[in-house]
Amino acid sequence: MNYSVKKIVFTAVLASLALIAFMIESLFPPILVPGAKLGLSNFFILTVLIFLGVKEAIAVFLIKIILGSVFSGNISALLYSFPSGTVSLLVEILLFTKIKTSVLSASALGAVINNAVQLSVYVLITNTIELYVYLPYLLLIGLLAGAFNGFLCVLISKALLKTKNFQRLVE
Amino acid sequence: MVEEKPNVKNQLYSPKFFAKKDVIIYAIIAVCLILSFILVPVLLKTKNAMGFSVSKDGKTVFTYNLLDDEIIFSNDDDILISKIESDGKVKIKLSYANGTFNELVIDKANGYISVNDSSCKNSTCVHSGKLKDKGAILCIPNGLKITPIADDSLILGGGA
């Protein structure tokens, strides 16, 4: 699959889906612990990583995170989400493409690292080390959310590959 | 329409739920999780927690001593403070100059403090729940910070 219209469209569609998932999720209050969420948009980034490649996954990530913070009117959130998102995406790419783990475990570790980095940035900015009490819960939620996204990604990828239209798209 | 191809040739990846090297990844996650659950509560617990300190933009607004049931306000003209006491609970509303506010509730019997209401958009402080002897409640938009304080710091900072 070269740089074709198909590829650009596929990337764009998944980027907008990731953005929509991100926007819908930001409407809900956090799960149990401040800042905790499912991170469903990561599912779309993983799908891009599987079918399109590393560069496209990074592009979708950047689109999601920059436009997401612009649309939600919370640009200062980039301060927390950008470093953590970058680190976790790089870890996921490294695990998946170089170390050859499954997307499920890559996503799980990525989410755990994302939460740890994000909390650390938050602690640094607010100068409140006490906030690390949330660390165990955020790691656990990261594991569950990451594994869920990874699981969903494998499940849907398998299903997609069985459909002939999709096979033509990826080729 | 003619080009029906049953096999995907350029497929980057055949998705799998499990790969051998996953074991290492899950082991790393498990170790981090277990260590954090064991170490974090021990390391961050405020010893002899006797009350709370509430500050805005780095300046102390008031401290509350659970033992003496005493609230020591610091003089700050920019913050309007109203205090209502009922059923062993103290409700303290802090109204700031720009129209924003935080409403705190201190549960005397159980030694908890929580944020009941806030003018900020996300209300992260309200969702933060109760604070006793470890952790902190922050309201970033209003610059509010609530932390537990230990016995000796109360004696130092207090003064009737």
Structural write-up:
The complex is a heterodimer of chains A (171) and B (160). With 171 residues, chain A is an all-alpha fold. Chain A has one domain (5-170): Orthogonal Bundle (Arp2/3 complex 21 kDa subunit ARPC3), CATH 1.10.1760. Chain A has helices spanning 5-26, 41-51, 54-71, 78-99, 103-126, 135-162, 164-170. The N and C termini of chain A lie close together (5 Å). The mean pLDDT of chain A is 90. Chain B is α+β, with helices and mostly antiparallel strands and 160 residues long. Chain B has a domain at 49-157: mini-chromosome maintenance (MCM) complex, domain 2. In chain B, 21% of the residues lie in helices and 36% in strands. Chain B contains three helices and nine strands, in the order H-E-E-E-E-E-E-E-H-E-E-H. Chain B has helices at 22-44, 124-127, 151-157, and strands at 49-56, 59-65, 70-73, 80-86, 89-95, 101-107, 112-118, 137-139, 144-150. Chain B has a five-stranded antiparallel beta sheet with strand order 3-2-1-9-8. Chain B has a four-stranded antiparallel beta sheet with strand order 4-5-6-7. In chain B, a hairpin with a 4-residue loop joins strand 2 and strand 3 (70-73). In chain B, 22% of the residues are buried. The A-B interface holds A 1, 29-30, 34-35, 50-53, 95, 99-106, 108-109, 112, 126, 128-136, 139-140, 143, 151, 153-154, 157-158, 161, 164, 167-168, 170-171 and B 3-19, 21-22, 25-26, 28-29, 32-33, 36-37, 40-41, 43-44, 123-124, 127-128, 134-136, 138, 140, 145, 147-148.
